[in-house]
Amino acid sequence: MAKLLESIKPIDNFSVIIAAGGSSARFGRNKLLEEIAGIPVLVRTVAAFVEFCHTGNMILAGSDNNIRLFRDILKVHFPNRAFRIIAGGETRQQSVINALDACHYRTELVAVQDAARPFSTPELLTKCIEECILCGGGAIPGKRITDTLKETNENGMITGTPDRHKTWTVETPQVFYIKSLKEAYAKAQEAGRLFTDDAGAMEFAGFPVKLVENPSFNIKITYPEDLRRA
Fold it and tell me: What are the pLDDT digits (tens) for 96-149?
């Protein structure tokens, strides 16, 4: 990947949002500071995409008590880069909305990346950017479901079996036209809807989103067992 990063040129009018406002409650400690082969999770995530952005066009949305810590870590690992580090919100949705407002005013395309997903690649981001432009709304990576799925009611009783051939697990980076994503979240807020991924808001607002199949390892670190797998 190092050689690929060396060949990447910043994309004009493009920003990357790193959603880093989670509490790591299920992990038990700040998972973004945990190391994989000596490199913090957060640094691995940022490193994959930082070369795509003009300096200052990567926005990291973190909780108030982590902002200074994240700033110090990024300064050590990326001494020649400027980042916009802002306070997130109580939900991932609000954190992304805050970050969208912090994007450079000339931004046309924006990628939203989970901070705890350190194996996303430049190739995957490139593919999502291409598909976003082709479909005119957004593009997100994912994997087809191979297990049988069940729907249940609040008591755990099975109520249905979705067609797994039409079902995917979704990942990041998710790429959108920023104007459309802002409009989608405005409609979601007005309707009192809360989404756990940005494509959900786009779907709710009626914008087209393309799923990009990603066969590569792209785990999100959620539990200590995930770090061991990584």
Answer: 999 999 999 999 999 999 999 999 999 999 999 999 999 999 999 999 999 999
Cα(198)–Cα(181) distance, rounded to whole angstroms? Answer: 8
DSSP the chain: -HHHHHH--PPTTEEEEEEE----TTTSS-GGG-EETTEEHHHHHHHHHGGGS-TT-EEEEE-GGGHHHHHHHHHHH-TT---EEEE--SSHHHHHHHHHHHS-TT--EEEEEETT-TT--HHHHHHHHHHHHHHTSEEEEEEE--S---EE-TTS-EEE---GGG-EEE-S-EEEEHHHHHHHHHHHHHHT---SSHHHHHHHHT--EEEEE--S------SHHHHHH-
What's this model's pTM, rounded to 2 decimal places?
A: 0.92
pLDDT value of position 2: 52
CA distance 126 to 209: 16
Looking up tokens 């670190």, which residue turns up? 221
